[in-house]
């Protein structure tokens, strides 16, 4: 190899981080292909490479015979002895070939092979480099928009920001620098395909880790994030140090830390709340700043019914239900919010319906109906399924009255079931 080529390959190795072995293999492949395309049509080519000096020598291996049948692989004894006086029939002779003998086409082919090998190695390096950054944040510059997607310059490669991963608050101006969450890195024929996002909730988590040292150090932990991209995000945090306020650490002095994140997300609102293992407390915090009157929990359905005063209703629900929806996402509980005045009215109507139904039973007045309701007998079916002893244990109801009540309830229930069956059997007109 010419001495002036050595610095070129060393520069490729250092600047483009291409492994030395890859470069050596590229040179070997190039020489082998060039030898096959050369005017002399060499065969049995062997290459010796000095890795320290980046120097190579090319040899053609031929068998020594009396009279050659194939000049690509054989050499006559006379010709062999002209090269090596000690040669004899049956020996294998290595004859050095000057690369300059390869010719213009072969040399061009060798150059193309080396360039291709270097490009392949560089592409693999870039893919490996960005693969390590999956699930991380990268800074990039907006390059162009194409078919709804945005192309991002990430330095050694380009990223693609699909339409579905964009934020409605973002305006992607040419040359603007932004931060992106790396969703996926794959390799294709054109190079690395890097898919980035501005809508993933993880970008909020990583921005907080970058801005809040207490999170990076593990003192404060983000337990949950609920986000509606471009509109609002709720972040639940907890402190593992009694002397550190988790919410205060994330917000920062005069709101500086959270404001930096809000600016990066182009004004998207962020609520930082305190995490709690108590469902009532957590949901109350999640619906902040609204003031809650009461919370009724249904563990089986994993749902909560929240009552608020009329003046707090719109604040608790939020514009187009956003605040309630984010609270549900954050806590993983179904959240229903109702005006406490309306709840009282609906409850009163429900209570009246129960009393009316019970008073339809023979011998049941308003007072007896109230006693039955308060004891949990809120329907005819519940009374029909009860025992006489259970009913007789209630104030003002004796055993005989209890038996009559159960009998009447059973008869009424049977009558209702029969009417329902008849209705189902009646053909549609």
How are the secondary structure elements laid out?
Elements: H1 6-15, H2 20-37, E1 45-50, E2 55-65, E3 74-76, H3 77-83, E4 92-97, H4 104-131, E5 137-146, E6 149-153, E7 158-161, E8 177-188, E9 191-197, H5 201-211, H6 213-216, E10 220-228, E11 232-239, H7 246-251, H8 256-264, E12 269-274, H9 279-286, E13 294-298, E14 303-308, H10 310-317, H11 322-331, E15 334-339, H12 340-359, H13 366-374, H14 380-384, H15 388-392, H16 399-425
Parallel strand pairs: 2-3, 7-9, 11-12, 14-15
Antiparallel strand pairs: 1-2, 2-4, 5-6, 5-8, 6-7, 8-9, 10-11, 13-14
Low-confidence stretches: none
CATH level 3 topology of one domain: N Utilization Substance Protein A, Chain:P, domain 4
Outline: elongated
Terminal CA distance = 99 Å
Q: Strands of the biggest beta sheet: in what spatial order?
A: 5-6-7-9-8
Counted by DSSP, the helix tally is: 16
For the largest beta-sheet, the strand count, sense and barrel status come to:
5 strands, mixed, barrel
Number of strands: 15
Protein architecture, described:
The chain is an alpha/beta fold and 429 residues long. Among the domains are: 3-128, NusA, N-terminal domain (N Utilization Substance Protein A, Chain:P, domain 4); 133-197, Nucleic acid-binding proteins (OB fold (Dihydrolipoamide Acetyltransferase, E2P)); 360-425, 5' to 3' exonuclease, C-terminal subdomain (DNA polymerase, domain 1, Orthogonal Bundle), CATH 1.10.150. The chain has helices at 6-15, 20-37, 77-83, 104-131, 201-211, 213-216, 246-251, 256-264, 279-286, 310-317, 322-331, 340-359, 366-374, 380-384, 388-392, 399-425, and strands at residues 45-50, 55-65, 74-76, 92-97, 137-146, 149-153, 158-161, 177-188, 191-197, 220-228, 232-239, 269-274, 294-298, 303-308, 334-339. A hairpin with a 3-residue loop joins strand 10 and strand 11.
